[in-house]
């Protein structure tokens, strides 16, 4: 029987266990997207995970969502990430950068650019913009057909910068209501060109973004995160089995490093996607943020359903030694949500390993 503590190979990487630290926004970068020394400490503390996936990193300034999130679109940002990846590797870890283009989940007061999206449909929500507090999300500007290619290229450009910064690979964020999922979902994509309308056209942006990143750094260094049926940031998908089966079929020939799926729809659909996907399959059992953090039992359940790797989010925040705590059946701490985005070391680099 497969165990969470068995090794697994992704591309040229041998992972010592099957636990993945899921990407989580931490908002500790400078105003211009520069990660600091605390970021290196934070990720290095958790390097015993089979694989670390960073918080969402904007691949372009237009793609930024929240204040104080890191980027990978300037030379200064690349230079600032190198001590982070060095620290992870020194501690024996492996780390992918998650490339997150926010699309309509952005505000001019954060990035200085008006957000773009598949269609000019505003998000019905308020967004935190920094000193001005929460403001209504603006109506995004719909990308022209010619401009869509430019937004695909930013994923490739950021993937190259990630490789230059020492990352082992990148994960494209196609989940949680951000730009890639905005193209996938009919309620946010009302286009009538080659990128909208039918399922075949709505999956095109995701496939071409993955192809571009794979061409840039190699397919075995590129993963994709998806949230079938998820409703974060106003997404409403009523064709989940058809949509994601078509997407997986189109992605399968690319030879990507992995598919990383959140549990936002029924288990049968996710198991069917597992069977259709020829490569590594990561399941995040927490799905949308709920009252219960993931535990060892739920991870073992999904391994039994065919998952290769299990990703944990909040459990890794308060338990940098989560692998050992699971292995030795040690108690887990619960992360303090008041510290998730407040900045500084508290609730970021201050959680310690279990003291016997």
Automatic annotation (TrEMBL):
Its cofactor is FMN. The keyword Oxidoreductase applies. SUPFAM superfamilies: FMN-linked oxidoreductases (SSF51395). GO terms for molecular function: FMN binding; oxidoreductase activity, acting on the CH-CH group of donors, NAD or NADP as acceptor. Keywords: Oxidoreductase. It holds the Pfam family Oxidored_FMN. Residues 3-331 form the NADH:flavin oxidoreductase/NADH oxidase N-terminal domain. One of its GO terms (cellular component) is cytosol. InterPro entries: Aldolase_TIM, OxRdtase_FMN_N, Oye-like. Coiled coil: none annotated. PANTHER family: NADH OXIDOREDUCTASE-RELATED, NADPH DEHYDROGENASE 2-RELATED. Belongs to the NADH:flavin oxidoreductase/NADH oxidase family. This is 1,2-oxophytodienoate reductase. It comes from Streptomyces alboflavus.
């Amino acid at each position: 029987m497969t165990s969470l503590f068995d090794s697994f190979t992704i591309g040229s990487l041998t992972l010592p266990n099957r636990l993945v630290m899921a990407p989580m926004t931490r908002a500790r970068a400078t105003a211009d997207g520069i990660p600091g020394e605390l970021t290196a400490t934070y990720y290095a503390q958790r390097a015993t995970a089979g694989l670390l996936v960073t918080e969402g990193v904007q691949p372009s300034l237009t793609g930024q969502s929240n204040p104080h999130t890191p980027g990978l679109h300037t030379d200064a940002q690349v230079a600032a990430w190198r001590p982070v990846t060095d620290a992870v590797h020194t501690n024996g870890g492996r780390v992918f950068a998650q490339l997150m283009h926010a699309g309509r989940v952005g505000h001019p007061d954060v990035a200085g650019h008006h957000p773009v999206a598949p269609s000019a449909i505003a998000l019905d929500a308020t967004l935190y913009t920094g000193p001005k507090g929460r403001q209504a999300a603006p109506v995004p500007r719909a990308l022209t057909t010619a401009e869509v290619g430019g937004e695909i290229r930013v994923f490739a450009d950021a993937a190259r910068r990630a490789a230059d910064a020492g990352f082992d690979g990148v994960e494209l964020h196609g989940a949680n209501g951000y730009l890639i999922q905005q193209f996938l979902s009919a309620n946010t994509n009302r286009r009538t060109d080659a990128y909208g309308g039918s399922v075949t056209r709505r999956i095109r942006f995701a496939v071409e973004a993955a192809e571009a990143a794979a061409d840039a750094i190699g397919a075995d260094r590129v993963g994709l995160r998806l949230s079938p049926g998820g409703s974060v940031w106003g997404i409403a998908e009523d064709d989940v089995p058809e949509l994601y089966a078509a997407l997986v079929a189109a992605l399968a020939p690319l030879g990507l490093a992995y598919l990383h799926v959140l549990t936002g729809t029924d288990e049968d659909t996710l198991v069917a996607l597992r069977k259709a996907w020829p490569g590594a399959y990561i399941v995040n059992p927490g799905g949308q943020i709920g009252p219960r953090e993931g535990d060892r039992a739920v991870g073992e359940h999904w391994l039994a359903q065919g998952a290769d790797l299990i990703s944990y989010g909040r459990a890794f925040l308060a338990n940098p030694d989560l692998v050992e705590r699971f292995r030795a059946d040690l108690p887990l701490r619960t992360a303090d949500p008041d510290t998730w985005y407040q900045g500084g070391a508290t609730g970021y680099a201050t959680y310690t390993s279990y003291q016997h």
